[in-house]
Structure formats: structure tokens, C-alpha cells
């Protein structure tokens, strides 16, 4: 049997296409690996704590090698953590879990030491957390700017931005804010706090602001924050879609906006495949959706619901869309909502398996005290001043720090004794974060303690001097007065006695 020339050409074309596709996949895989950093061996994610703080469980692809798990993470633009349970042979794995560890640009994943697990993290997100080398002089390290988490607001709302969580081992002397992108008629005004500005006159769009902090010797660092001012269409997704528990069956308190009651209401989120009407706090929900109404005669800004619940075909899918097996696109929030919107049903195919994999991860026993005592200390974004204690696993000591009053973490205790008891036995081997995260607050705590000690010493010296003066004065007043005797045996009158006599004689009533 012989092949015709057309058959040979067709076979060659198919083979070339396969080889080309294989080569492209190889190049993509190799490029992908360069964007990830090996985290720390024998550390697993504390799934419950991470999801409670806003981490997102993306998926658990059925792959069997470390490389394939990382490449799976690369294919999802929201993925920045590839967590693996090691297999029996080098490079093999039993399970692969993909997570987004950012909640509005705040890192919220918590790790705990556990044999048999491995992890790779996106370098652009976690690189600085794992780098033990800190540039600058050991006696004066560069500052670290913090512009806070991203915001979602309505048009004409005002937004307060601050850098109160920026850190330096000495002192930050300058905070400078400026707008990188957005509508130019936004108004930025300073407040009486050095690190704070108020932004007003905002219209729908995306605004990026940059904070640059400078320390006393001129070292500087910058951080950015994004403010999304919702359009009516975006308000549909963030405020008007129904609450979504999701296919997973854990329970985490969240808030959603109810456009009928025009209120933010609490609900229990299952742990995966949320939509955008899902907020960690009531305040965050109200900032994004307060005043939105769908009811005729409502008290707020009326928005007409326009929810696209059908697939779109014929073009590439956007990052905020789910790709059906057919190649058609669907809003990401509609995946695993219990209703098939993809014509091939692929948006509801793997939902039950997702719940099984998350439950498997949640059941891994972890030592919660080690999670608590290895978190870098967090002063929070508020401006109160409460004395708390945090545990430093590198020095194995408890140190004093000033807590701002809100949004800290669990590594804070009311006394040194409670701190030491709760964290007994926790060492640097249990820590995922780098040492520098603890050193900055340690140096501030030591400096603050030294200043307090000096002031206390001065106060004690002043008090002792005052007590000594009062004691000597009282002793002198209690001594008996001796009248001097004249040479003729009579008592001599002193000037003081004369004054008393004159006073008594001249003031005696007539």
C-alpha cells in the first residue's frame, strides 16, 4: 500500500503542527518556571486561617510532577502559590493545590511547618519575603513603604489613604503621595497626619497612587495602591449579584450587599469560587456599595441590573472570565453556581471535586500555636496606642510593641507572661517569613524600652530630690528656737521678734 502525495503532505503538516505545539508548550513551561521561587521545604498552608483572611482556593489540578503543578499555576493569572504534597520519588507529587494569596494586594496566606509538603511562590509577590539579605547599613536599614490595601468605591466618594503601616528601624521623616494614573481632576489634600491624604472628586475608573517614604539618612522606598471607582456595569458585579456560598462546604464569615434592603448583610461563605459581591468586613462592603438601589423610589443611586449570564463565543476570554471547554467565555463568578451556563456544561463539571480537595487540605493537622507565634508582628492601620507583646521566634523572646487598635494579627498578647506561655518551644525553624520582618519591630521596641527606662530614671531622681528637700525643710521647722542671752543675763531680742512686737502693737484693736 502506497501513500499518495497529498496524504504525505497532510501527514507532514499534522506532525509539524504537533511538534510546533509541543515546542511552544515547552517554551511556556520553561519561561513559567523562571517566574517562581522555591518557598520553604516542609511547610504547608494553614488553609482555614488563610481563607478566613481572604485567600482564594483556585483549583487542584490532577498532575503528578512539581513542574506540571507550577505550570498549572502559571496558566491562571490569579495564582501565586503552588502547594504540593510530595510523592514517593524525586519530583513526583501526590497532590497539587493552587491559591491566590493576595486579598486586595494584602498578603494573607499563613504557613506552618509540616513534613512532606513543598511550595513554590510567584517571585513578584513573595520574593522579598523569602530574601534574607536586606540592603543598606546594618545599623540603619532602608524603610519599607506600605500604602494599604486596594479600595473599591462609588463615584464621588472620598478616599483616605495613609502610610501608617510603613516601617523603619529608625525614623521615617518624609511621606509623599502622588497619582500615577487616573482622571487628572481628582483632588488630593493633605491632612494633619504626615502620612495621610484625602482624595476626592473621583469619577468612574481605575486610579493608581504611589507612596514614597524616606528615612533620616535619605534611604527611600515606594508602594502603590489601586482605587477602583465603579461604573454602573461594575456595580452590577460588585453589588447586585446574589450572594454566593460556592460549591465548597467550609464556613467563613463574609459580607454581601443586598440591593433590595440596601444594606450589607453577613453570610457564611463555603471557601471557593466566590463572586465579587463578597467582602471580608461590613465596612468594606459599605464602602463599595453603599447607596446602590434597584428599587423604584429607593433612597440610593439606582442602578439597573444588567447581568450577562450567557456564554460569549468567537473571541479570546478575558482574565476575569471562565473559559468553557468549547473555548467560549463566561463571567468568572458564574462558575460553580449550580446552573450550567456553558453549552457543554463545563462550568459545573469539577465543582464537587473542588470541595473534596479543599476538605482534604483542611483536615491536615497543624499546630495552631506555631501559626500564631510565627506571624510577623502587625501594628495595624489604626492610630490608637495599645501596649501589646509579640513573640520573636528567632530570639525566642517576647517584646513590647504599640498596637494601633484594629486589623492586626494573632501574634499579640496582653502580657509578657501570656506571650511566653503561648509560644513556648516555637523556634526559627517554624518560621516561613524572613528574619527582617521581626527585626524592624524589635529594634523599635528596644529603642522605645530604652527611652522609657531613661525617662523613668530621670523621674525617679527628681522625685527623690523633691522628697529629700521636703524632709530637710520639715526637720528644720521642727527644731526648737533658742533665744540668745545678753551679756547682762537678759534675753536679747532678735530682729524677727522686734518685727512681731511691732506688728502686734500696731495691729492691736483699740
TrEMBL record:
Molecular function (Gene Ontology), one example: serine-type endopeptidase inhibitor activity
Family annotation (SUPFAM superfamilies): BPTI-like, LDL receptor-like module, PKD domain
Subcellular location: Membrane
Disulfide-bonded cysteines: 317-329, 324-342, 336-351
Signal peptide extent: 1-25
Superkingdom to which the source organism belongs: Eukaryota
Pfam families on file: K319L-like_PKD (PF22352), Kunitz_BPTI (PF00014), Ldl_recept_a (PF00057), MANEC (PF07502)
Predominant subcellular localization, coarse grouping: membrane
BP term (GO), one: collagen fibril organization
Any single Gene Ontology cellular-component annotation: plasma membrane
Entry protein name: Low-density lipoprotein receptor-related protein 11
Organism per entry: Clupea harengus
Amino acid at each position: 500500500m502506497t501513500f499518495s502525495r497529498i496524504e504525505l503532505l497532510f501527514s507532514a503538516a499534522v506532525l509539524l503542527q504537533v511538534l510546533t505545539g509541543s515546542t511552544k508548550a515547552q517554551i511556556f513551561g520553561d519561561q513559567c518556571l523562571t517566574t517562581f521561587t522555591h518557598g520553604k521545604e516542609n511547610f504547608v498552608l494553614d488553609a482555614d486561617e488563610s481563607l478566613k483572611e481572604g485567600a482564594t482556593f483556585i483549583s487542584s489540578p490532577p498532575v503528578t510532577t512539581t513542574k506540571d503543578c507550577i505550570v498549572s499555576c502559571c496558566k491562571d493569572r490569579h495564582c501565586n502559590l503552588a502547594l504540593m504534597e510530595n510523592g514517593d520519588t524525586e519530583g513526583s507529587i501526590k497532590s497539587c493545590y493552587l491559591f491566590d494569596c493576595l486579598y486586595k494586594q494584602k498578603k494573607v496566606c499563613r504557613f506552618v511547618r509540616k513534613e512532606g509538603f513543598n511550595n513554590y511562590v510567584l517571585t513578584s509577590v513573595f520574593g522579598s519575603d523569602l530574601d534574607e539579605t536586606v540592603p543598606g547599613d546594618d545599623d540603619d536599614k532602608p524603610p519599607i513603604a506600605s500604602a494599604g490595601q486596594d479600595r473599591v468605591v462609588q463615584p464621588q466618594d472620598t478616599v483616605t489613604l495613609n502610610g501608617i503601616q510603613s516601617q523603619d528601624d529608625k525614623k521615617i521623616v518624609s511621606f509623599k503621595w502622588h497619582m500615577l494614573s487616573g482622571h487628572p481632576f481628582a483632588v488630593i489634600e493633605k491632612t494633619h497626619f504626615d502620612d495621610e491624604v484625602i482624595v476626592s472628586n473621583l469619577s468612574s475608573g481605575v486610579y493608581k497612587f504611589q507612596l514614597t517614604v524616606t528615612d533620616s539618612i535619605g534611604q527611600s522606598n515606594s508602594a502603590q495602591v489601586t482605587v477602583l471607582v465603579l461604573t454602573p456595569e461594575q456595580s452590577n458585579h460588585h453589588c447586585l449579584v446574589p450572594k454566593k456560598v460556592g460549591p465548597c462546604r467550609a464556613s467563613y464569615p463574609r459580607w454581601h450587599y443586598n440591593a433590595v434592603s440596601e444594606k450589607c448583610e453577613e453570610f457564611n461563605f463555603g471557601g471557593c469560587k466566590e463572586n465579587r459581591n463578597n467582602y471580608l468586613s461590613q465596612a468594606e462592603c459599605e464602602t463599595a456599595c453603599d447607596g446602590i438601589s434597584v428599587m423604584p423610589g429607593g433612597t440610593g443611586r439606582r442602578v439597573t441590573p444588567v447581568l450577562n449570564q450567557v456564554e460569549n463565543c468567537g473571541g479570546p476570554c478575558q482574565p476575569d472570565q471562565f473559559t468553557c471547554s468549547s473555548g467560549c467565555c463566561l463571567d468568572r463568578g458564574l462558575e460553580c453556581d449550580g446552573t450550567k451556563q456553558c453549552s457543554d456544561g463545563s462550568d459545573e463539571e469539577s465543582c464537587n471535586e473542588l470541595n473534596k480537595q479543599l476538605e482534604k487540605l483542611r483536615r491536615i493537622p497543624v499546630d495552631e500555636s506555631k501559626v500564631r507565634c510565627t506571624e510577623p508582628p502587625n501594628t495595624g492601620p489604626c492610630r490608637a496606642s495599645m501596649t501589646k507583646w509579640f513573640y520573636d521566634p528567632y530570639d525566642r523572646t517576647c517584646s513590647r510593641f504599640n498596637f494601633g487598635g484594629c486589623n492586626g494579627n494573632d501574634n499579640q498578647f496582653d502580657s509578657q507572661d501570656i506571650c511566653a506561655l503561648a509560644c513556648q518551644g516555637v523556634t526559627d525553624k517554624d518560621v516561613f517569613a524572613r528574619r527582617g520582618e521581626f527585626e524592624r519591630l524589635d529594634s523599635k521596641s528596644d529603642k522605645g524600652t530604652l527611652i522609657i527606662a531613661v525617662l523613668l530614671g530621670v523621674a525617679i531622681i527628681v522625685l527623690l530630690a523633691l522628697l529629700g528637700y521636703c524632709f530637710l525643710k520639715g526637720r528644720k521647722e521642727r527644731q526648737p528656737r533658742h533665744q540668745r542671752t545678753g551679756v547682762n543675763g537678759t534675753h536679747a531680742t532678735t530682729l524677727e521678734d522686734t518685727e512681731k512686737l511691732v506688728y502686734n502693737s500696731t495691729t492691736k484693736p483699740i
